[in-house]
Hints:
The structure is a single chain. This protein is α+β, with helices and mostly antiparallel strands. Helices cover 25% and strands 35% of the residues. The chain has helices at residues 17-25, 27-33, 126-134, 137-152; strands spanning 6-13, 40-46, 53-59, 66-77, 81-85, 103-111, 114-122. The protein has a seven-stranded antiparallel β-sheet. It is globular. InterPro entries: ASHA1/2-like_C, START-like_dom_sf.
Amino acid sequence: MNPELDLSLQRVIRAPRAKIWQAWTDPGKFAQWYLPAPAVCRVDRLEVRPGGGLVTRMSEDGVTFVPHMDAVFLLAEELERIVFTNTIDSSWRPADAHPVPLTAEITLAEHPEGTDYRVLVRHGDPAARKRHEDMGFSDGWGAVTDQLARAVAEPAGPASR
């Protein structure tokens, strides 16, 4: 991690990695947690494999949906790591990514209470990192990660694997 360019967060999620992986790879499950509530997500493409598309739309009222994300997966290591970027769109064309061009890396690791879930978001320059931080990276990505944790939560105690 480069603190001048990157933002990160980490959570222990009380669920096995397989359940989190499924929440990342099943479009129906993904739509349930990917945007901070009360925003609603629709998944147009979720192809979690290198070169696969990640295309979503969002709605504030649940009726009118607007484009949200058009990105491509760079890496998908089952149960361990997912990397995607919005600097290339799902058609593999260079993208004018708004509001912030980024590459996000999600890592899943075993933890005694479930899964050690880490997010590392890389930016191309310090100004982009600052813009993302000022937009509320911690609150937004934190809320989404909390929603993911609630969606896959298991009862207290050691997670079954």
